[in-house]
Amino acid sequence: MDSLSSSSSSSSSSSSLKFNHQWIYDVFISFKGDDTRESFVSHLYAALSKAGINTFVDNELIIKGTELGSELLEAIEKSRISIVVFSKNYAESI
Question: Which pLDDT tens digit goes with each residue over 31-46?
């Protein structure tokens, strides 16, 4: 019994260390650019920004099958949460 409780307390302290990093963004918005960028996503970004929520939106067009750039991966890692905007063509971008 004692080994189980000490094991669980050590794993919880190590997991809290893992999540103790500084966020740069509150929100990362994931979307397929050509079908939502100029409509829903731009309105969502404006509303979040107006509310004081620091939001990352990628302004580059990502071509299907190409690797995500290091800046984009870093933005994902340094965002507190992600909002995925599902659209008709979103699955094609993955």
Answer: 887 788 889 999 999 9
Cβ-based neighbour number of residue 36 at 10 Å: 20
Tokens coding 73: 């991966």
CATH topology of domain 21-93: Rossmann fold (3.40.50)
9 has a pLDDT exceeding 50: no
Domain layout of the chain by residue ranges: 21-93
Cα separation of the two ends of the chain: 46
The whole-angstrom distance between residue 72's C-alpha and the CA centroid of its chain comes to: 10
Token couple for 8: 């669980």
Q: Are 35 and 87 in contact (CB under 8 A)?
A: yes
pLDDT tens-digit readout, 57-79: 987 656 555 667 788 889 999 99
